Amino acid sequence: MLNFEFENRTKIIFGKKVEEQVGALVSANAKKVLLHYGGGSIKKSGLYDRVINSLQEAGVEYVELGGVVANPRVSLVREGIKLCREEQVDFILAVGGGSVIDSAKGIAAGFYYQGDVWELYMREGTFDECLPIGVVLTIPAAGSESSGGSVVTNEDGLWKRDIGSLKLRPVFALLNPELTYTLPNYQTACGISDMLAHVMERYFTRVIKVDLTDRLAEAIMKSVIKQAHIINQSPDDYDARAEIMWAGTLAHNDLVGTGRQGDWASHGIEHELSGIYDIAHGAGLSIVFPAWMKHVYKSDIPRFAQFANRVFDIEINTMNLEETAIKGIEAMESFYGLIGMPTRLSQVNIDETRFNEMANKATNDGTTTMGSFVPLTKADIMAIFELAK
Ligand code: NZQ
Ligand code: ZN
């Protein structure tokens, strides 16, 4: 096990009606808040009205900025920074999913930064201070409600890039599983795909003797797969929704990554896809991950066989461990199919036209590698795109 530091300050408040506490929580942290949200699902569901009521009852002043799109754009982040400075906002409340939270984090990081916020995403600048953030989560997926990451797309050049800092972890996150009943099945499945990917990125590691975190990871994956089957049949099953929601947070609050080195190449490759083609992140991952697995599994067959055995209950064939490993990859792929996720680029109308451009972007024109389980060169990434066709 590697040395590590683990810190996660986000206070999670979980369960039915917890969003009613939002006004009191914000008033304990702020004088004037920016209410940040997406394209309208919170207005349709009535959550927007409940949040406003709660803020008003607590006597919190607010300004609002809606319109965050999936794969959030830096132009709105810039608008948010300007608004927060003009209005002397001292807290950001993100009501929505990963895109809204990530946009809020961009605003939070850019608020005190003197240059253009995009410089932070391009590693051309750093920030020490940021505005605090609170979250009312409406989709279990990205884990941004307690992660230190923010992923934003620049329309100019279609670069999707991230920043990460412990300071960006939200102060609180309110998680009511009932708020997820209104999710379209496709978005529920995208969320499931993303949380599984967050665990797998950490699970496939070169670090040995990490039994505890292996088993925590396997428990999350097994449970998510089990609950996904239940939600497929009964989308309004509170307990299954609750398990999935908590799993989404645990998958990415970094507990499972303690003492080990994660890979993150599949995420890196996916960000090139969703940056250019604007597909849902979870759908990009269900395409990239099986292709990545097929490309790299031979470098550590025992780990892939363990994955097959412990996550999908596939019997270990001691005479032919490779066969067990392959069966695990196949099981993963059929699970994606079962929940309605694509596993080939052709299913989301992406052809080879821009493979080279994406592989260049991912590797700084072929000069760097991506990931650590197998450091992928530009040629590896091209091969993964070919496998994903
Ligand atoms: O915009 P609205 O109208 O709210 O609709 C959203 C959006 O269209 C809808 N939705 C959300 N909650 C709903 C709902 N519809 C009905 N009922 C509800 N309760 O769902 C759509 C997708 O929302 P989005 O926020 O984009 O989804 P998600 O949480 O999957 O976030 C994806 C983004 O997070 C980034 C991804 O790259 C992507 O940009 N990630 C962020 C990470 C982080 N910050 O730590 C890590 C991840 O790996 C990921 O990269
Ligand atoms: Zn992700």
From TrEMBL:
Keywords: Oxidoreductase. CDD domains: BDH. Residues 10-177 form the Alcohol dehydrogenase iron-type/glycerol dehydrogenase GldA domain. The keyword Oxidoreductase applies. One of its GO terms (cellular component) is cytosol. Residues 190-386 form the Fe-containing alcohol dehydrogenase-like C-terminal domain. It comes from the Bacteria. Transmembrane segments: none annotated. The keyword Acetylation does not apply. It holds the Pfam family ADH_Fe_C. Coiled coil: none annotated. Its EC number is 1.1.1.-. One of its GO terms (molecular function) is alcohol dehydrogenase (NADP+) activity. PROSITE patterns: ADH_IRON_2. This is NADH-dependent butanol dehydrogenase. It comes from Petrocella atlantisensis. The gene is bdhJ.
